[in-house]
Amino acid sequence: MVLAKNELLDYVSSGGLSFSPGLDGFQVQPHAVDLRLGFTFRLPKMWELNKEGRVAVAQDPTADRSDAFEEIELTPGQYFDILPKEFVLGTTLEEIGIETGKLMGVLYPRSSVNRRGLAINMSGIIDAGYKGRLIIPLMNNTESQVIRVYPGERVCQVVFMELSSELSKAQAQQHGLTRAKYHAKEEVASRGDRKDENALIRSGRLEQLKKTFAVATN
Q1: Quick check: 41 and 93 in contact, CB under 8 A?
Q2: Which residues have C-beta within 8 Å of that of residue 88, sequence separation ≥ 6?
Q3: Can you tell me the distance from the alpha carbon of 89 to that of 68, in angstroms, rounded to the nearest whole number?
């Protein structure tokens, strides 16, 4: 069931759902909550200089590369220009907390933002028990226009839904064979998948992966 405004506010009042900083009157919609853009941005690094020379920085999901992005922290009153065809990662201003095992959220872009040529490439799940800020992938889809964004803009919205049964804290944090990736201050670091899984993927040993980590069905 998708929560309407009254149910959303009831969850906030009871502590089952939290936002920091708190919500303002512009953000609460009939069946969604608008989220504002934060001050932290990360730009993909194109290259680096190492002992081998000038080397391209590849976005390899199986590699442990915590330094593949350059982080920029704006201050109040500053803005961020996104160049044509440029991809950056932003964050939400709000830290969101789903403090109950009965709720999950789904994140969507606001249509008014897309009409500016700014693609927010996300439709992601916010898990029960999640606490932290959210990553916002931003892409300037125009050929020649710079798109200026400001911290505090309402750029995306989250729809909350009640689960058919309540999850325990342990159940909510268990994603397949790993625990939840993101919590509190880790939202921009974008941790990868498990190293043992990545090692098998990199070496092409998919049959071994399936055999080693088979799911018991009885």
Answers
A1: no
A2: 41, 42, 43, 44, 80, 82, 138
A3: 12
CA proximity to 56, closest of 45, 43, 67: 45
Element (H, E) at 33: strand 33-44
In single-letter form, the type of residue at position 100 comes to T
Q: What is the DSSP string of 142-173?
A: -SS--EEE-TT-EEEEEEEEE-SSPPPHHHHH
Domains of the chain by start residue, with CATH: 5-212 (2.70.40.10)
Average pLDDT of span 9-35: 92
Determine contact, residues 41/72, Cβ cutoff 8 Å: yes
Coil, strand, or helix at residue 31?
coil
Q: What is the pLDDT of residue 207?
A: 80
3-state secondary structure of 12: helix
Q: Render 111-144 in DSSP notation, one character per residue.
A: HHHHTTTEEE----EE-TT-EE--EEEEEE--SS
The number of residues in the chain equals: 218
At residue 17, the pLDDT reads 94
108 — phi, psi (to 5°)?
-135, 155
Place of tokens 């593949």: 68
**Residues sharing a CB contact under 8 Å with residue 71, sequence separation 6 or more, in sequence order:** 40, 41, 42, 188
pTM, to two decimals: 0.76
CA distance 194 to 197: 5
Mean pLDDT of 112-140: 88
